[in-house]
């Protein structure tokens, strides 16, 4: 996809949608559902039972592609507003200076001050962190209602939705081409003669994944569950930066036909690992939201 075409239909591979911001789908319908299903099915036993129920797992799986369903030209305002939340091009983001601000509007102000449009750089980590905080708030409400022996059905449904919604962006962030300005064809110096055609993005995450999903065995590659320490935005940025270390690997695999047809053992193994990374991160973020929801709420600050 060219700069004008990060809006690719999940239903019709190769259909380009022109929008006011660059956009692209990661993993397509099949990959996103797989990531969410694996994550929800691997939540530890001390997570609330309602999040681990078969019905919740089914709903979280369904919600994996949900934000891509909001990307039709039939809803142009919605498309324009949320398309940048699926990616971040770390090269121009880091050119603004690191570390990046934790709050969305602080980042946007910094980008505008440097003469850059934040929607062209991408808003991925802010969207993911904000949804995670929504999930944590819902789980805190669940704890409070449970302690008061009140009905928790409605807040359970809210938490399931937030978990599924979160999974889409966590999945996006496991796809290396969602972290770079080389998202759909190599740009800049190209001594290794990587493809500059605007098709690698969907060829990898959409066509190849859909055609080989049964051969992509991601579950064994998931990492052991762990609670995440420290600030979630910082942890999420570390996750994104690790994903970005594989950008060139994607181009290397494409160069040898790794995403054509059944690909190669190496390309299938790489893709399985990337899907597993998304599922592992989502599982750990949901689990951490549950644990953190039980911590005391800090006193509000009125200095802002």
Automatic annotation (TrEMBL):
UniProt keyword terms in alphabetical order: Disulfide bond, Endonuclease, Glycoprotein, Hydrolase, Metal-binding, Nuclease, Signal
Keyword Disulfide bond in annotation: yes
Signal peptide coordinates: 1-26
Alphabetical list of SUPFAM superfamilies matching this protein: Phospholipase C/P1 nuclease
An annotated GO BP: DNA catabolic process
Any GO molecular function: nucleic acid binding
Keyword Zinc among record annotations: no
Protein name: Nuclease
Protein's organism: Occallatibacter riparius
Lineage start: Bacteria, Pseudomonadati, Acidobacteriota, Terriglobia, Terriglobales
